[in-house]
């Protein structure tokens, strides 16, 4: 695949030849703080390595030049870059007014620098107020702007600043497909967007090969072991400074109680940082034996520290972006990163309003190891960015063009150089068969594998792994990118831990089974597990009648009776993961015995097993077969024979089906009176036989206020597999606590 499908090879070659023969591209890289330098440094090294194409000018401003923030300009000098200009632009005060004044001071000083350097392109990173001053100055002085990491979504004023810079920038380098789509939705020119990945990932993905123990000991002490310390990095939230300071205080209290060695980095220069430092000193963090408080850690060393930490906590974008490359557990506090795409390693504590909540999050996350995530890059961003820079034609008009709706199809480069279909591996663990499928984002079952479900735990797990590995390999051939594995199984499931707590009697040796760990370890993919009834509800929510419906219930009518409840767009699991056991709603005190041990459950009347039981009774009394029916001697009596007999006029069979439909209808009425959903979806092989009976019972028995509920039959061909896929496709980049 070529990098830019919208540019012909010939045009690109001509532009590059012109740049080589006539003019080196003069690139100005302006860095404001330690965070943006970690993203810009790989690009700067790449530019410096190709002097035949580029001239590099480095401008340093912002908190780089402040002693309280570590004088981080020194690391730029240590990297052997010539700093052409140092601009002191920060007005101290660390409040909202100081931020505004700092932007104004930068705007006063930058024009003289830019007039002197006369760059062809200014590279601006991210969403800081300093970067807004850079972009504003360059735009007003007719200098082309290349913006790194546009199109992303987060909390605080940074979000608005990032999008403002996007509108000023002429070229865009984004890190994720979602960010690319956001840029397109913001009417940016498709031809000037590059999906490259995050430049810092070029370092991150090779970082673990280096010696790390000496770095850990240097920053945390000689007695510290890997995975047995915490890295804390928390910044003020400029749109709610008072709350963010309180949250920082609660975080420190929780870390003190948790009693693990902790490296605390000072906050950035945003409004509120001075108060946060006061909180640290008030609590004696700088002198506490368990804490090491530092203003700055060089990025190469910081990589090693977070890669081998037991946990990272705070609200830095580094936690939700870079740390995912190592699978290190992260606790993201508050709203500063709301909207960011994250891997499974990130646990969000949106309302970090109590010490206990943060402490509980630490207990959940500390010491875990998650699959590595490459949401933000594959380690090859810099070569793509350099090629993008070489393709810039300085003879093109400087004036930006916006692509207003209708938006064209995405035509910029994919990270893996191929147009892949984002997909999930779906596993359906039934009583008889074990099925694995590749399911696309649109709900298309691309490929399906079916095997008989083994009877023992060991054989079953071995077969699941074998089928998943085979399907994952085949996904490459059918051009699918597997985002994760979703598993639908009978019984009670703890979806948070991926453990089957208790299974149905149909699946033997399947209790207290950890499915997530062995499958995730084998495939290096995140794994989700849930009850088959809940999966059916998720399938309806994403692909079926439940799409866009706030409150609905799904009832599965098959071998057993199960279901799932969606309330306010979210699946209900219950306090002990036993919600929506709809088949065990009791509709008669002296009804037939159920497999659960109780009497009069819906499942004892309306399940496939119950109908088969009644069909056998009729058959034993010679009352099942009627004219038009025949059975072979060795043929097993089933629910299908009962349904066929009822259709052919067998009144006793018809009475049994009516009773079953009435029992199911009474259960639905109970659900309506308890949950008040706007929609009831009947799924499974018996749904079409019960739908009219259920509607009749609602009309007779339900309160008038709920009689208007819609009762429909599912139109999904395979809700179990689609539901398992939904676990992955809905939650691959979201995990909320």
Automatic annotation (TrEMBL):
Gene3D superfamilies according to UniProt: 3.30.420.40, Glycogen Phosphorylase B (3.40.50.2000)
Enzyme Commission code(s) on record: 2.7.1.60, 3.2.1.183
Active-site residues from the entry: 532
Entry superkingdom: Eukaryota
Binding site for Zn(2+): 584, 594, 596, 601
Cell compartments where the protein resides: Cytoplasm, Cytosol
GO MF annotation: an example: UDP-N-acetylglucosamine 2-epimerase activity
Keyword DNA repair: no
GO cellular component: cytosol
InterPro entries, per database record: ATPase_NBD, ROK, UDP-GlcNAc_Epase, UDP_GlcNAc_Epimerase_2_dom
Keyword flag DNA repair: no
Keyword annotations of the record: Allosteric enzyme, ATP-binding, Cytoplasm, Hydrolase, Kinase, Metal-binding, Multifunctional enzyme, Nucleotide-binding, Phosphoprotein, Transferase, Zinc
Listed name of the protein: Bifunctional UDP-N-acetylglucosamine 2-epimerase/N-acetylmannosamine kinase
Record field: catalytic activity: UDP-N-acetyl-alpha-D-glucosamine + H2O = aldehydo-N-acetyl-D-mannosamine + UDP + H(+); an N-acyl-D-mannosamine + ATP = an N-acyl-D-mannosamine 6-phosphate + ADP + H(+)
Organism of this sequence: Antrostomus carolinensis (Chuck-will's-widow)
Subunit annotation: Homodimer. Homotetramer. Homohexamer. The hexameric form exhibits both enzyme activities, whereas the dimeric form only catalyzes the phosphorylation of N-acyl-D-mannosamine.
Pathway assignment: Amino-sugar metabolism; N-acetylneuraminate biosynthesis
GO biological process: one example: UDP-N-acetylglucosamine metabolic process
Residues annotated as binding an N-acyl-D-mannosamine: 492, 504, 532, 581, 584, 603
Family: In the C-terminal section; belongs to the ROK (NagC/XylR) family. In the N-terminal section; belongs to the UDP-N-acetylglucosamine 2-epimerase family.
Domain UDP-N-acetylglucosamine 2-epimerase: 53-390
A Pfam family this chain is assigned to: Epimerase_2
